[in-house]
Design a protein that fits this description.
single chain; alpha+beta; two-stranded antiparallel ribbon; globular
Amino acid sequence: MNNNYIQYPDNAKVWIYQSDRHFNEDEKKHIQIRIDDFIDTWESHGNMVKGTFTILYDAFVVLFVDKQGDTMCGRAQDASVKLMKELEQELELSLLDRMNQSYKEDEKAVLVKLNDFETLYNDNKINDETIVFNNTITTKKEFDTTWELPLKNSWHKQLVNVVSQ
């Protein structure tokens, strides 16, 4: 979708919001309009926030902020969370539930619940080489290097270690 974030510095702040279901085309357009409008008025410490976003795999809304050395104020961060809550209500989906996780299969995100990893692993539907999405990352550098990585190199591995030992 939007690739403006590619030009952002490695220390740009990143927030990843994963949906509990895939977006359809109308929903993606709605998200685009709402976030574009939000970014046009997004302020921190009285200054406009230099932000952008992208929608990936029809399931992730990823916000990027070029902090340019400034720390974002809590009010600016709260405003972005408020927007996500509004989108949840408008589109009848979940974006803030950290129990929503996913893995990659055939270039698509498979959306699951956190506690499904153990069963998926034990049933050989996923394995150590399965690409998972690390939604806990906080910088563009981490996004570029460790958002998508093999399960064996991710924090997700601890979810399956208990059973595979």
